[in-house]
Amino acid sequence: MSEQNDPQSKAGAIIVPVTLFEQNCTIIWDEPGKKAVVIDPGGDVPKILEAIKQTGVTVEKIWLTHGHIDHVGGAAELRDALKVPIEGPHAADKFLLDNVVESGARFGMTGGRNFAPDRWLEEGDTVSIGDLSFDILHCPGHSPGSVVFFNKDLRFAHVGDVLFAGSVGRTDLPGGSHSTLINSIKTKLLPLGDDVGFICGHGAGSSIGQERMTNPFITGEM
Question: Metallo-beta-lactamase domain location, by residue (predicted)?
């Protein structure tokens, strides 16, 4: 579990790697109110609940970047435990949320449940937690309903599996399209600005500027 928290900032965040996929379940909160959101609870719900307790935040929402099992496997269980709404992803990923149990079985993951979010998200929507507000960008390609959460004031985004440090999301899963993914990155993420830092679904985060310069999928070397 890694924590990022600047006393001068309006927000804090911790990353809780979950399941064998080492997916970056992320808890983000506002300061000083400590109102929090859990992004992509992919599983290991007891571990997520312990991180919430240790951080001392009050979780009020669950946000989902997309519907793949490693990002949503614990969503229904966590919703029941915390009694909070689930927001996201885009409705184009409904077919994935309708098949969580089947998807989990293929990877030996048990305990997941099929579910629907309390709110589907679309391009141009806004979500908030405490005093923090995030714009929604619909970025299909990795999955049809992938969304990105972007906070203009903090110059920060959570991009799920759309973009990684040095790579991009895989597109060989149902509904995936490499050309669509690259278009999403170039038309939705790169225009946010080189100074925007991001957390992604797996591995270390990066910045838009770093990826614009060095990511082979963006520079055209791959």
Answer: 22-202
pLDDT computed for residue 115 by the predictor: 98
C-alpha to C-alpha distance for 21 and 116, rounded to whole angstroms = 23
Please name the amino acid found at residue 117. Answer: P
**What was the pLDDT predicted at 3?**
52
Looking at residue 33, its amino acid is: G
Beta bridge partners of 18: 23
C-alpha triplet 136, 140, 142: angle, nearest 5°: 120
Distance CA 169, CA 156 (A): 19
- Burial of residue 119 (number of CB atoms within 10 Å: 0-12, 13-18, 19+): middle
Q: How far is residue 101's CA from residue 136's CA, in Å, rounded to a whole number?
A: 27
The token pair that represents 26 in the structure block: 């992320």
Do residues 52 and 61 touch, judged by C-beta distance below 8 A? no
**Residues 90-147 pLDDT 10s:** 999 999 999 999 999 998 888 899 999 999 999 999 999 999 999 999 999 999 999 9
Look-up: residue for tokens 């050309």?
179
Q: What is the mean pLDDT of residues 160-168?
A: 98
Coil vs helix vs strand at 93: helix
Instruction: State whether the Cα torsion 40-127-148-141 is positive or negative.
Output: positive
Spatial distance between the Cα atoms of 175 and 70, rounded to a whole number of angstroms: 16
Give 183's contacts (C-beta < 8 A, 6+ positions apart). Answer: 141
